[in-house]
C-alpha cells in the first residue's frame, strides 16, 4: 500500500503533552502527516483502543525465542528479526557478551554476512559488544577467563569488521579512557557498564566521549552518599543516558522511580533479553554457557547470578506507566531517546519525515501492555489475531 491513513484512539507522538486522539498518514514507507483529533479523511484503519506509538528501539538484545545471537545460525537470526515486532520492537542492537576478541571478530563477520539475507522485520542497527573489556569485580554472568584490557590492537580487530555500533566497557581498566576516545572517534557509542569505577572515573569517561551507562544499578558501583560510583554518576551527569531493565526483578519499583525522576529525558529502557525470552521455563544458553529460566523471574546461571532477562520491551513500557511514569515519557524511553542516542533521528518518533515504524500497544486481559500490530517502513510485519480494529 503506497499511502494510507490511520486514526488512533491515542497517539504517542513526541512533542505532544501526552497521548490523545490523533491520526497519521503514511506514504512510501515514511510518515507524511500527523495530526490531532479527527483525521481529515476517512481512515484506512481505525484503532479504537490502546495507543499508536513509534516502533520501539532496543539497544540490548542478546537473543530471543530460543536463539543466542552471538552464535545463532541463519535460521535463528531469521526467527529473532521476524518475531521481535511481536514485542513492538522495530529496530535493535544484537548484543554479544564477553568472549575472546577473535571469537567476537568471527561473530561480527558472520553477522555482517547474514544481514543482506534477513527477512522483513526489526531493523538491525549494528552490534552491541558487552565486553570483554569489563571489571572482574562486576562481571555478573560474564566469563572471567575472557575478560581483558581494551588494547589498541584488540579495538582495531573489532572495529575493522564495520559492525560495532555500541561497546560496553569498564573505563577503570588499563587503557580504558584511551579506548573510549578511540571508539568515540570511530562513531561508536560507548557505555560504562560492568564497572567498579568511581563517579570521578565515570565523569572522565564522559569527558572522553562515553554517553551511556549499561543496565543501571546492575553489575556496577552504586549510589553511596560518600563514595558515589557508576550509578550515582549516571543519574547526576546530564551527558549520560542510563539503560534500565524494567522487569521489576533487576531493579525495584522504588529504584526505577528514582531513575525516571533523576534522569528525566535521558533514561533508555532496554530488555537485555537472553535466548530464554519468549520461551517456556527451561535451560538455554547465554554466551555459550547454560542459563536456567525459572517459572517466575529472569534467567539465572547455576550459581544464581542473573543472566540477562526474559523481558519484552512493550511490557517494560507498560511497567513504567504502571509505576506512575507519564505514558509519553515511558514511550520515549523505549523509542525516541535510544534512537537519538544511537544516531538514528529518523526512528523512534511519529512526525513527518520519520520512517513509518509504528506499533499499536494495547493492555491485555492482565493489564500488561502488548503490541497488537507493528509496521516497519509502512509495511505490516506483525498482527495479532482478532485485533478489534475497524476499517
TrEMBL record:
Residues given in the record as Zn(2+) binding sites: 130, 194, 215
Cofactor: record remark: Binds 1 divalent metal cation per subunit.
EC number, as in UniProt: 3.5.1.25
Pfam families, alphabetized: Amidohydro_1
Cofactor or coenzyme needed: a divalent metal cation
Binding residues for substrate: 141, 218-219, 226, 250, 306-308
Example of a GO biological process term: N-acetylglucosamine catabolic process
Active site per UniProt: 272 (proton donor/acceptor)
Every Amidohydrolase-related domain range: 51-363
Gene3D superfamilies: Metal-dependent hydrolases, Urease, subunit C, domain 1
Top-rank EC class of the record's enzyme: hydrolase
GO MF annotation: an example: metal ion binding
Keyword terms: Carbohydrate metabolism, Hydrolase, Metal-binding
Domain of life (superkingdom): Bacteria
Matching PANTHER family: N-ACETYLGLUCOSAMINE-6-PHOSPHATE DEACETYLASE
NCBIfam families, per database record: nagA
Family statement: Belongs to the metallo-dependent hydrolases superfamily. NagA family.
UniProt name for this protein: N-acetylglucosamine-6-phosphate deacetylase
Amino acid at each position: 500500500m503506497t499511502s494510507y491513513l490511520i486514526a488512533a484512539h491515542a497517539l504517542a507522538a513526541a512533542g505532544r503533552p501526552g497521548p490523545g486522539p490523533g491520526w497519521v498518514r503514511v506514504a512510501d514507507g515514511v510518515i507524511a502527516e500527523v495530526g490531532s483529533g479527527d483525521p481529515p479523511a476517512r481512515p484506512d484503519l481505525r484503532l479504537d483502543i490502546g495507543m499508536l506509538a513509534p516502533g520501539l528501539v532496543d539497544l540490548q538484545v542478546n537473543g530471543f525465542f530460543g536463539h543466542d545471537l552471538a552464535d545463532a545460525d541463519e535460521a535463528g537470526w531469521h526467527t529473532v528479526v521476524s518475531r521481535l515486532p511481536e514485542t513492538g520492537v522495530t529496530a535493535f542492537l544484537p548484543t554479544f557478551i564477553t568472549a575472546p576478541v577473535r571469537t567476537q571478530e568471527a561473530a561480527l563477520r558472520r553477522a555482517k554476512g547474514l544481514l543482506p539475507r534477513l527477512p522483513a522485520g526489526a531493523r538491525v542497527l549494528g552490534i552491541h559488544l558487552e565486553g570483554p573489556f569489563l571489571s572482574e569485580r562486576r562481571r555478573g554472568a560474564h566469563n572471567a577467563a575472557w575478560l581483558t584490557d581494551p588494547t589498541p590492537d584488540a579495538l582495531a580487530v573489532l572495529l575493522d569488521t564495520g559492525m560495532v555500533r555500541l561497546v560496553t566497557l569498564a573505563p577503570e581498566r588499563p587503557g580504558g579512557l584511551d579506548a573510549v576516545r578511540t571508539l568515540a572517534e570511530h562513531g561508536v557509542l560507548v557505555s560504562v557498564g560492568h564497572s567498579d569505577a568511581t563517579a570521578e572515573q565515570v565523569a572522565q569517561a564522559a569527558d572522553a566521549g562515553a554517553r551511556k551507562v549499561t543496565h543501571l544499578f546492575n553489575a556496577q558501583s552504586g549510589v553511596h552518599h560518600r563514595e558515589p560510583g557508576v550509578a550515582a554518576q549516571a543519574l547526576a551527569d546530564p551527558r549520560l543516558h542510563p539503560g534500565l531493565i524494567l522487569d521489576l526483578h533487576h531493579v525495584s519499583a522504588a529504584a526505577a522511580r528514582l531513575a525516571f525522576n533523576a534522569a528525566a529525558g535521558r533514561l533508555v529502557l532496554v530488555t537485555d533479553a537472553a535466548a530464554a525470552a519468549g520461551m517456556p521455563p527451561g535451560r538455554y544458553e547465554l554466551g555459550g554457557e547454560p542459563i536456567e529460566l525459572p517459572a517466575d523471574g529472569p534467567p539465572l546461571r547455576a550459581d544464581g547470578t542473573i543472566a540477562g532477562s526474559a523481558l519484552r520491551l512493550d511490557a517494560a513500557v507498560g511497567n513504567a506507566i504502571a509505576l506512575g511514569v507519564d505514558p509519553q515519557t515511558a514511550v520515549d524511553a523505549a523509542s525516541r531517546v535510544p534512537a537519538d542516542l544511537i544516531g538514528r533521528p529518523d526512528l523512534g518518533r511519529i512526525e513527518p519525515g520519520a520512517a513509518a515504524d509504528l506499533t499499536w500497544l494495547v493492555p491485555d486481559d492482565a493489564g500488561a501492555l502488548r503490541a497488537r500490530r507493528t509496521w516497519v517502513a509502512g509495511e505490516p510485519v506483525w498482527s495479532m489475531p482478532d485485533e478489534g480494529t475497524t476499517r
